[in-house]
Structure prediction request, 1452 residues.
Amino acid sequence: MPDIDKLLWPNSVAVVGASSDTHGLRGRIFEILRSYPFAGKIYPVSRSAAEVQGVKAYASVEALPEPVDLAVLIVPAAYVPAELERCGRVGVKAAVIPSSGFAEESEAGARLQREIVATARRYDMAVGGPNMEGFANIAAALCPTFSPAMDKSAGPLAPECALGRGQVSVVSQSGGLGFAFFDRARPRNLKFRYIVTTGNEAALEIADFVDYMLDEGETDVFLLLLEGVKTPEKFKRIAEKALRAGTPLIVRKIGQSAPGSRAVASHTAALAGSTAAYRAVFERYGMIEGRDFDEMLDIAMGFLACGDRLPAGRRVGICTASGGAGVWMADACAAAGLDVPVLDDATRAAIDVHLPAYASSQNPVDSTAQGVQKLGYARFAQLVARSLAVDGVVVVITARRSAFLEADLPKLKDLARETNKPVFMWTYTLPSERTVEILNEAGYPLFTRAQGCARTLRAMADYRVLRERWLRPIEVATPRVHERAKAGAMLAESDSRLCEYRARQLLAIYGVGADNMGELVHSAEEAAAAARAIGRPVALKVQSADIPHKTETGAVALNLAGAETVRAAYDRVLAAAKRHAPAARIDGVLVQPMAPPGREVILGVNRDPTWGPLLMIGLGGVLVEALGDVALAPVPVDHAAAAALITRLKGAQVFGAYRGLPPADTEALADLMVALSQFAADHEEDIAAIDLNPVIVHAQGHGASIVDALIVKRNSQTAERHGAAE
Amino acid sequence: MPDIDKLLWPNSVAVVGASSDTHGLRGRIFEILRSYPFAGKIYPVSRSAAEVQGVKAYASVEALPEPVDLAVLIVPAAYVPAELERCGRVGVKAAVIPSSGFAEESEAGARLQREIVATARRYDMAVGGPNMEGFANIAAALCPTFSPAMDKSAGPLAPECALGRGQVSVVSQSGGLGFAFFDRARPRNLKFRYIVTTGNEAALEIADFVDYMLDEGETDVFLLLLEGVKTPEKFKRIAEKALRAGTPLIVRKIGQSAPGSRAVASHTAALAGSTAAYRAVFERYGMIEGRDFDEMLDIAMGFLACGDRLPAGRRVGICTASGGAGVWMADACAAAGLDVPVLDDATRAAIDVHLPAYASSQNPVDSTAQGVQKLGYARFAQLVARSLAVDGVVVVITARRSAFLEADLPKLKDLARETNKPVFMWTYTLPSERTVEILNEAGYPLFTRAQGCARTLRAMADYRVLRERWLRPIEVATPRVHERAKAGAMLAESDSRLCEYRARQLLAIYGVGADNMGELVHSAEEAAAAARAIGRPVALKVQSADIPHKTETGAVALNLAGAETVRAAYDRVLAAAKRHAPAARIDGVLVQPMAPPGREVILGVNRDPTWGPLLMIGLGGVLVEALGDVALAPVPVDHAAAAALITRLKGAQVFGAYRGLPPADTEALADLMVALSQFAADHEEDIAAIDLNPVIVHAQGHGASIVDALIVKRNSQTAERHGAAE
Prediction:
């Protein structure tokens, strides 16, 4: 493994291609690099100039007085492989390559990129890029980048009065967006540690940098910007590592839309991938998805300010001096899925003594301008924070004037020391710089967006729950050796498309729908006998891999009772099947008990090209497709994850007491999902898709019935053809 | 009508209750008022002080050297009525009352508030408040308010280099939030005209101020913040007036959540009202709902910058020098419902000649840093803007450095002159002040939020469509004199709850479901005869206002064919009904043809306490309640509005070719909605609710069938009782 330490913390840096023309990128990168007090040596390397921006230049890395740790290669793409080779030869241990014109451009560029990879490997060099915007190590004042956001004139690298002691690192595939996080965070006084951009990720990718930083242990919150993920397994590993460490990963995947995904493909040669699959992976690992810069920075700010003081639940107390702004925040909290409960009587009584008659202590606690003028923000917030009815507090302020808060500072500090709940400040006016400083000094994050403030509290509460679930001792899953072997053998000898009876036999090995399997028969008499044995109304279904749409072709008969009826139906469905597909190979007719009524759901497993098999659940019925109400998770899932997935459906309330129905057996549904996901995980190499549609979930204690099932094998020409024929 | 002109444009102002203590609100309001160069006289009135903040004070308004135009009353609530009376007597024509302690506090306060109303009426005074935060007339430099956002130290009243010549006015029930709009807009260089806060709206309400400003014609965009609407008819009138004038109303209704609504009730004594109903009214009049300050200001900025240059459609061209930022913007556009089409070949060819090989002209046009360095932003934007494939352009820039844009300024100005499409700038880094100035000078709005930028373009495109629809010559609706009279008479003699046959007779007068009515019978023989006449399978339903849940009680039989079956079913349903409700008055049994299959919808009309009857459409079936996919509109609707309402359903795609079904007859559905809405509008005083559930929409050309119908009359004890019993 190459040494990222040499890349991010070099003792000396050479800029190969440095120029004196500060209008161009090659001049800018050298100018910016030199404008900060980096303690190490910086050498310009230029084939044409004897000096660059007043600094003596060297003709090549070989001519440098010492072998540098890091080379920045900003020369035309065609020259990059040779320069990198030269670096390797003289013992340079790391390189970043801002130059463009590689895999994102053409096949010729892709060849150059492959040369880079080979050279990096040969010399065990840590190589970032190409087609990136460099990086910044704020702690070392090292900024090899041409990003305008790092212009010296834009402001200092670190705030004078930072919020807390925690540090944020940005790791971004996009250079422009990566540095934009740092730039846009300036008014917030957050302390950054690294901004690393990764571009085409020929060698090092996002996960490598995050892994290094997690090991280093100096980054408290990550902001990640992805276009695609190069090595999914590596990414999942660092996601889990971060979750165990309690270091939140705040993430944005771009290229989620059709035009966005088209653009990703064209500019970094990455596959945009399915947004839903990415989201499922983020959710699994407690990664927090942000919708825009502001929201991601809000969430980062919340975590930085609160450290381990995460809210124990979703109940928020709101203090305000402006009635309208309190309402605004209450709306924002409700929209973020937080509760704003009426406060307990004791807390209200303690507050009421300080309020004018026209104020309100219910929650929002509207102390009015008069009330807050008398007592200050901190005391009201303290009274609310002490209430057992809330898990966090939002104080609504106008941060335009600082004098008032200045006077309140000692009490604000008291409160920050006393409470173990997050206390957030939201200002509805613009804050003055001094106000931000005062609040930061007292340890409070100041939000300017109500939505962002509420969303942050919610994200922190969710993160805590998910992490605690994750850290619980894991149920030791049975190794499933026997099941695995048996199902594997059966899969191997199956056709590419397994019709219902075959799919169900296979799934039953894992306990999926093992009751209620039905019987495969080959004559009308057998059908009648099977129906008699079942003892309640049955369905008959012709089984053939060549007839996927059984219902439409008449190859299914439902709700049959009595031997005569069953016999007649047997002949009818078989005749219909033969009429529809004379050449079809028919395996028999499946006789099944009719499922009692219940809530209809769809369960499935589909392979995402990046993330592999994902378990899907959706509400069944005619509207499911139109409303797209499905939830996904990587397989396997445990019971808790399955249960959480069910509640993520927008229409999840149908599973409760709904329209006169008793609550549904979601326990049984979750069990079914667990078993299905284990089957899919064990055989992921062999399976393209599983479709249980519908599954009927009965009332509590009565289980769930699979009504139809289909499995399509992977890597099979036949499967492809069948799939295409539908 | 009192003269709002005297309130907003007084020649002289008295502050009754002014104080020298600038820590208190009474001192602050006088301090702020005096800190701006208002051209008129400002008098402090104080019972105790001979001078206030160095200015000679007067003991009462009666002692002033002249009768002032405007009095600001900031004395304890109990003294306000007497002070206002005094003002009226000496000829003061307008007053604003910041003091609290009125209807929002107690019944005693409500009595004081009624006294204010009476006095205002008696002297024909324009009175704002009470419980408000004053106002600001920016053009007159008149700021009678204690809002910290208006502190002189916060910045100048008007920007030095404003974006365009247009002006924004804020009218807000909440004082804190109203002035926050102004304060938060400071970095945007928008020109404000008024910020008016209305508080409890004892006399003047939001609509009165908007009406005045529309007549004045100097406000180009309104920002409105509502907690509730005092006079719905007045509000609708100004909404229509603004739409005709082409002056957008950007609106936020707060108190949308349960805790928010609770807080509204407690702090301005307003009824929060139903969010869905407000939204329906906003949509009807093209009012643009914003989710937060930033979004509302973004939209205002877009309209101000573009004037009449609204996008003709939703197709956007994106120019960027950062690949990642281009993807980000493409995602934001797609999320806002905009199209980002691949550009036409001619446009691409014209662009390609300027691009390096690794850049892309597809859209986003990713010119890369090199490309834009060569040609500048303006030329690329110009090439894109000329394409017939787009209706608007977003240019993605980094506004951190201004030098580059400075050089591009002449070409930026050319483009602004040349194009008739909106061209927006979005910066992913923070802008420098100079950049904002440069862009404003050239006439471009600079967005810092991608979502806000995209949402603004979408809002402008929608506004244009809606307004053009509104301005079309209205179809002259038939006056429906006959229908109205006939239905009115029938309603008058009906019970409080009209069961299906009765409801259908009534609705049929308006043509609603006039075919397919079925026949009411009173014997098994009559039932069989009716079924024979219908000639296809029928349903029987017991008709009784006392049996609302027919299906559950067995009082319905479906899909009956043959005289014998029908006769037997008649006896069965009647017996079931009598068993279930022995005392029920039974009107007969309805014999109806079974409706052919189709998409199931629910149509209804419900009365909102503020906005009156609203037409509702929702997708039918078991999931409707869980997914809450319904759309509302005030009645009546015309055909275009009904069609638009259908497309607003999240699951609207079920009406197209869906799952093998042919497209549904949405024309017939819209006709049905129009007729239903006309009925509801004509009889709104008498009807509490109409419920057509389900309505089956058949394939195109085959109409729609009402399968069940219920009408509940208004203001009827019986109706209440029945409603509560369900």
About this structure: The domain at 481-593 of chain A is CATH 3.30.1490.20 (Dna Ligase; domain 1). Chain A has 25 helices and 29 strands. The first strand of chain A starts at residue 12 and ends at 16. The two ends of chain A are 48 Å apart (CA to CA).
